[in-house]
Automatic annotation (TrEMBL):
This is CoA transferase. InterPro entries: CoA-transferase_III_domain (IPR050483), CoA-Trfase_fam_III (IPR003673), CoA-Trfase_III_dom3_sf (IPR044855), CoA-Trfase_III_dom_1_sf (IPR023606). It comes from Marinobacter salinexigens. PANTHER family: SUCCINATE--HYDROXYMETHYLGLUTARATE COA-TRANSFERASE. GO terms for molecular function: CoA-transferase activity.
Length: 403
């Protein structure tokens, strides 16, 4: 059965994570994604290891975001390479890029140049700070934006606590969110094009995305005028909603309403705590967290994690362990949902990747093509585009324009 984006072709000029994360998602949904890479260097993340896939030169970092694509190696700094890309654009629906502002204009590969070739082109630009504004010329990386965009001011333990201070998130969440915003924007633009017949230029910045994903913390500030601070594993608006030490480890207790708090108190053997006016409602528990949390800490520390997880689960009180990544992939729910997938790699044999979480009719939406080797599809793609110009392509290969 055809996938939703079958027949859509994406020319992917992006590299690192935000752009490739977007285009991998589009590839999983059925789009033909042509990944353009430098003939010698390729995508930077191919070398961002260890670990590397067996004896190949590709790092696991690269593998996480490039499933389902066709790689062509073209040097766009050379005029012949630019000409190839322009001819390719005429056959594409979408161009995705994450060069610095104005970086592609000197090659004639910016939106205004390419829409002359393909008037209904959907062109998506991902940058650190957007196409305009005082920071627009700056390069943007996830870590920088987690700091500049406020995320690190609310992540980590308070300054006065042991180990306190700003902390980044353990994965590049700004890049990942940006990739998904880019994907939904592209899909929306394609739907709009189907109605109007017109293309568009999408401007997405990591800074804008980071500010938007502050979510309730942003509106907490906009409503109160007070900047939220770091609370470690606690929640600014819900109590108790944090990690607690048990007698042999840690658990997460995520009490979302007053009934759940009452049931927790029953399991903990302190039912009167739930009827205490200071703690009976979430509003009061938040106001009196410094009184309540130490009591809960003392209670939970008296028994092992298994006791709390089993007893609270039976009573419908949200809780869970803090798993290592190894434990995540051994978890029966994760295994049942098939989140670890196997693919065949032409050099390395069987390889494991993380599945796309989307399901259609209870089937995962994953491309069946592994992450491509550098320039693996140059001959196929350009051979289809120029079926009668083999000598021309050979001359470009000799010049190092293609690989």
């Amino acid at each position: 059965m055809d996938k939703p984006l079958s027949g859509i072709r994406v020319l992917d000029l992006s590299r690192i994570l935000a752009g490739p994360w977007c285009s991998q998602h589009l590839a999983d949904l059925g789009a033909d994604v042509i990944k353009v890479e430098h003939p010698e260097r390729g995508d930077d993340t191919r070398g961002w290891g260890p670990p590397y896939l067996n004896d190949t030169q590709d790092a696991a970092y690269y593998l996480c975001a490039n499933r389902g694509k066709r790689s062509i190696a073209v040097d766009i700094a050379q005029s012949e390479g630019q000409a190839l890309i322009r001819e390719l654009v005429a056959t594409c629906d979408v161009v995705l890029e994450n060069f610095k502002v104005g970086g592609l204009k000197r090659y004639g590969l910016d939106y205004n140049s390419l829409k002359e070739i393909k008037p209904d082109l959907v062109y998506c630009s991902i940058t650190g700070f957007g196409q305009n504004g005082p920071y627009s010329k700056r390069a943007g990386y996830d870590f920088l934006l987690q700091g500049m965009g406020g995320l690190m001011s609310i992540t980590g333990h308070p300054d006065q606590a042991p180990g306190g201070g700003p902390m980044k998130v353990g994965v590049a969440v700004v890049d990942l969110f940006t990739g998904m915003y880019a994907a939904t924007s592209i899909l929306s633009a394609l739907i709009g094009r189907g109605t109007t017949g017109e293309g568009t230029w999408i401007d997405i910045s990591l800074m804008d995305v980071q500010v938007s994903m502050l979510a309730n913390q942003a509106t907490n500030f906009l409503t109160s005028g007070k900047s939220p601070g770091r609370l470690g594993n606690s929640h600014p608006n819900i109590v108790p909603y944090q990690a607690f030490a048990t007698s042999d480890g840690h658990i997460i207790l995520a009490v979302g309403n007053d009934m759940q708090f009452q049931r927790f108190c029953q399991v903990a053997g302190v039912p009167l705590l739930a009827s205490d006016e200071r703690f009976a409602t979430n509003r009061n528990r938040v106001h009196n967290r410094t009184l309540l949390v130490p009591q809960i800490e003392s209670l939970i520390r008296t028994k092992p994690s298994s006791f709390w997880l089993d007893a609270l689960e039976r009573e419908g009180v949200p809780c869970g362990p803090i798993n290592s990544v190894e434990q995540v992939f051994a978890d029966p729910q994760v295994r049942h949902r098939g989140m670890e997938m196997q693919m065949s790699h032409p050099e390395a044999g069987e390889m494991s990747l993380v599945s796309n979480p989307i399901r259609f009719d209870d089937k995962h939406s994953n491309s069946d093509q592994p992450p491509p080797r550098l320039g693996e599809h140059t001959c196929d793609v350009l051979g289809q585009l120029f079926p009668d110009r083999a000598d021309y392509l050979d001359s470009l290969r000799e010049k190092g324009v293609i690989r």
